[in-house]
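Sharing a chain and its predicted structure for anyone who wants a worked example. Both blocks are below, sequence first, tokens second.
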Amino acid sequence: MSRETEDLNRRLLRARDAMDRAYAEPLNVPAVAAVAHISPAHFSRSFRAVFGETPHRYLQRRRVERSMFLLRETDRSVTDVCFDVGFTSLGTFSRTFREIVGETPTAYRRGHGPIVAPHCVQLAAMRPRIGAAEISPPAAAGSPAEAADLSRRPEVSSFGEAPAVAASVG
């Protein structure tokens, strides 16, 4: 790996860490790209190539992960949880939660109580592995090759970057 690639990866990690720390605050690509000291367009392309998802989708997933914890462990209303994790619209929160988790926030709360396990086990068990919208019904994917092809669909982001299939970085 070249020195330039290492430097870019380090900058992207720094930006991702900043997103993790400030997930509940309003964030946009230019602000996060400034943390990495690169242009917003280059940041979006590079972030997707390195981490496999757009910055917007990463932030949404982090917010949903945090909301899953709050729904399981607290008695706060779904609306309060929505605003606590950084969403500004209950409808957007519910739609995004359902896309990522596969069920509504209310149904998730009903079906999942507090976890009694070490924190590292909880994190591994509760991290959404694949969005519910990305799961294809058995009839749509007749063979493993077709199922793999469906999982490579471009992701649309409200950050404005052009959809592109994620580049694999070795």
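Comments welcome. The chain has a mean pLDDT of 81.
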